[in-house]
C-alpha cells in the first residue's frame, strides 16, 4: 500500500472555484468563513473569495448610501470581503440623510439607526402634544 507524503493535503488538489462554491453553500456566518480560512491554504483562498463573501452581503436590497460614504477607495474596487468588513465596522449614512446602516459581523443582519426626524410621533404635528427641541450638539451624525 502506498503511503501519502507526510503533511500532504489532498483537498489542495481541488479547484478553488469548487471549494468556494461548496463553502458559500455550507457557511452560514462570517465567523464560519474565518474559521474555514485557517484550515489550509486552499481553504483560505476559497473562504476569502468573492463568491463566499457575496452571500453575507445584503443582495439587491441594500438601500442607497449617501454620497461619499464609501468613496475611499471606490466601492467597485473593494472585494466582497472588504465591503462586508467596511459595512460591519462603521455606520454608513443612507441617502435619505436620516438613517444609518451597519451589518452585524456575527449574523450579517442589517442594523439600522434612525434619527429623531425619521420617526413618526403620534399627534406630533400638534404643539399641545409634542414640541421639537433642536439639539445644539453639531457632532451628531444627523445634525443639519
Automatic annotation (TrEMBL):
Stretches that traverse the bilayer: none
InterPro entries: F-box-like_dom_sf, F-box_dom, PP2-like
Domain spans labelled F-box: 11-55
Pfam families hit by this protein: F-box-like, PP2
Record-linked PANTHER family: F-BOX DOMAIN-CONTAINING PROTEIN, F-BOX PROTEIN PP2-B12-RELATED
Full protein name: F-box domain-containing protein
Organism for this UniProt entry: Digitaria exilis
Biological classification of the source: Eukaryota, Viridiplantae, Streptophyta, Embryophyta, Tracheophyta
Amino acid at each position: 500500500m502506498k503511503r501519502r507524503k507526510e503533511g500532504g493535503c489532498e483537498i489542495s488538489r481541488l479547484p478553488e472555484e469548487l471549494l468556494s462554491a461548496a463553502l458559500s453553500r455550507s457557511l452560514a456566518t462570517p465567523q464560519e468563513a474565518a474559521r474555514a480560512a485557517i484550515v489550509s491554504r486552499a481553504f483560505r483562498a476559497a473562504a476569502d473569495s468573492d463568491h463566499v463573501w457575496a452571500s453575507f452581503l445584503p443582495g439587491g436590497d441594500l438601500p442607497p448610501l449617501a454620497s461619499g460614504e464609501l468613496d475611499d477607495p471606490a466601492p467597485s474596487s473593494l472585494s466582497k470581503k472588504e465591503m462586508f468588513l467596511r459595512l460591519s465596522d462603521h455606520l454608513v449614512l443612507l441617502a435619505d440623510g436620516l438613517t444609518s446602516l451597519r451589518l452585524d459581523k456575527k449574523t450579517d443582519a442589517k442594523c439600522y439607526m434612525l434619527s429623531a426626524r425619521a420617526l413618526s410621533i403620534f399627534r406630533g404635528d400638534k404643539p399641545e402634544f409634542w414640541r421639537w427641541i433642536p439639539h445644539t450638539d453639531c457632532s451628531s451624525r444627523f445634525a443639519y
